[in-house]
Write a structure and sequence with these properties.
The protein has about 325 residues and is α+β, with helices and mostly antiparallel strands. The protein has 2 domains: about 25-150, no CATH class; about 160-320, Protein Transport Mog1p, Chain A (3-Layer(aba) Sandwich). The protein is about 30% helix and about 35% strand. The chain has helices spanning about 1-20, 40, 45-55, 120-150, 160-165, 215-230, 305-315; strands at about 25, 30-35, 70-75, 85-95, 100-105, 105-110, 110-115, 165, 175-180, 185-190, 195-205, 235-240, 245-255, 255-270, 275-285, 290-295, 320. The strands form 4 sheets. Strands 9, 10, 11, 12, 13, 14, 15 and 16 form an 8-stranded antiparallel beta sheet that branches. Strands 3-2-4-7-5 form a 5-stranded mixed beta sheet. The protein has a two-stranded parallel ribbon with strand order 1-6. Strand 15 and strand 16 form a beta hairpin.
């Protein structure tokens, strides 16, 4: 009887284990989207709509680079390893109108959006009108993936906690480049350039019109550049490029409201320039504005993914909950 009981128990657990789904690890380059669409549609106005919706120029870069790299494949070859892509858009014609988002359908983590309509006109309208939410979900997933990769090898440092009672997860390739009592500057070398992360805080008495903050933010940013970010030549320093107005968005870090600024910087008195992304957090609990900025100098390289790396680091920021 005891042998029979243990046999039944073994079979029960064996069946339970076999029924559990095996979720495979997704793959792919950062900011790359697999577009499952027929060759005919891809070369038509529908394909143009997909490119307009998901591969428009990323904001704030000195030269045009797409928001996502799109990798097209027809449905008949969307099998096996192709389904492991982390970001997928399925586009096709069908009897019914379908707009659906799936999470971790074939792998994890994975974001998939399905667009289907009875005719091309309806399909184009759907793609153009509904892409914003899809982009937000995919970008959030890409940030998490970038952070996951960073977590494999992180920089061991106490500077951010000592200065700001906060933390951010930096890749080990960065090093502390410069600091004072209010500011920390981290940098990593790349081929013929560098990626930079700048952290500083300001008292909440600082003049900053939160409803229309761009003018004040540029003034603050340029003053920090003058005091802390010199150029290569004597007397030169970083400023916000005067010829182009930065993009500005409202966002948040947990429950802390923030302003996001994307634009280009230049060095007054020298021939240096590049893109930057900056977050200004209204950290009322700590009675401060917390400022984080990533800026890139890479004159002979594309810069989208470097800025994205900087954003992923800053998005890992967390304030000490005890303060």
């Amino acid at each position: 009887m005891r042998v029979f009981f243990f046999t039944i128990l073994f079979l029960f657990f064996s069946c339970s284990q076999k029924s559990a789904p095996i979720v495979k690890q997704s793959s792919g380059n950062i900011n790359t989207v697999t577009v499952v669409i027929s060759d005919l549609l891809w070369s038509s106005d529908v394909g143009d709509a997909v490119r307009a919706a998901f591969a428009y120029p990323a904001p704030g870069l000195p030269q045009q680079e797409p928001l996502f790299d799109l990798k097209q494949m027809p449905p008949e070859v969307f099998t096996g390893f192709a389904r492991m892509s982390r970001a997928i858009i399925w586009v096709g014609l069908g009897d019914e109108t379908v707009l659906r988002t799936d999470t971790n359908r074939y792998a994890s983590p994975q974001q998939m959006a399905v667009f289907s309509a009875p005719d091309s006109e309806a399909l184009i309208e759907m793609i153009l009108s509904q892409s914003e939410g899809v982009i937000a979900a995919m970008k959030k997933n890409e940030i998490k993936e970038r952070q996951r990769r960073t977590n494999k090898s992180t920089l061991k440092q106490n500077t951010l906690r000592d200065l700001f009672r906060s933390e951010a997860i930096l890749p080990s390739a960065y090093k502390l480049f410069k600091e004072n009592k209010q500011t920390a500057w981290f940098q990593r070398e790349i081929r013929k350039g560098h990626v930079n992360l700048l952290f500083y805080s300001l008292p909440r008495t600082t003049k900053l019109n939160w409803e229309n903050p761009l003018e004040d933010i540029i003034r603050i940013r340029d003053s920090v550049g003058l005091a802390f970010v010199p150029g290569r030549l004597t007397g030169s320093h970083m400023i916000t490029e005067e010829a182009y107005e930065p993009y500005i968005f409202y966002t948040s870090f947990d429950s802390i409201p923030a302003v996001e600024i994307r634009g280009t910087w230049e060095v007054r008195g020298d021939f240096m320039a590049g893109p930057f992304i900056q977050f200004v957090l209204d950290d009322k609990k700590a009675n401060r504005y917390m400022v984080m900025e990533g800026f890139v100098f890479a004159p002979s390289a594309t810069k989208r993914d470097y800025i994205f790396e900087a954003e992923s680091v800053m998005r890992s920021w967390a304030s000490d909950k005890k303060n």
